[in-house]
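Page 42, continued from yesterday. The earlier attempt failed because a stray header line got pasted into the input along with the sequence. Redoing it now with the clean sequence only.
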Amino acid sequence: MKKLSTLLLAMLGLGTACSQAQHEVDVFKTNNGKEVRFHALMHASIRIEFDGKEIEIDPVRKLGNRTTDYTLMPKADYIFVTHEHGDHFDPEAIRLLSKEETMTVLNGRCAGMLGRGEVMKNYDQSHFPDGISVEAVPAYNTTEGRTQFHPKGRDNGYILNLDGLRIYIAGDTEDIPEMADIRDIDIAFLPCNQPYTMTTEQIVRAARLIKPRVLFPYHYGQTDVSALPSQLQADDIDVRIRHYE
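This time it went through. Structure tokens are written below.
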């Protein structure tokens, strides 16, 4: 597993409307010295800067009373969409972020709705220029009464490899058995939003199974995730709570 080196943490206050200048930023270095910067936009929307490239995860302009103005951000080189729900898939945000050479990666349902993009299904792997590769992994509900939210086989999580730095973006999922096969993760984004994704107990089990160096709980809505850092302290997992409500 690559050693992580945290360079900078910008902790800035957030109002009810998020602007570009107010997003929290975590910065890491790969072993080859390249910077990877994570901007906590909101909920499941993440902006990643890597070696001069812009990567957007599930870009969404508005959620409740929170907004992200993508017109203030650089155009994306890569856009990854996990699934079709409105808090993850926003065609207008994708349009605002796109340029002619933007690579948009989606599951089959989203590609059909958008009318374009590179389709990846569970277990597909793709290698892009710029030292970037990605694997699509399963993301689904298992608890009785929840399986209709995210049925097995439809949605994606993604494992991004940026110059050897392995980042697991889980999408909307519970602590599924397939997580036992997810190894050597440096940074994990795990959802904690009942009843659609994981309970706090499930996210603890998932984190202990995956064993990331750094964990960002995200997509957590009104779920109280404040106890997670202490719950996982003995597991040597650095839990960072950011504004991913």
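Notes: Residues 5-239 form a domain with the Metallo-beta-lactamase; Chain A fold (CATH 3.60.15.10).
Reminder to self: strip header lines before submitting.
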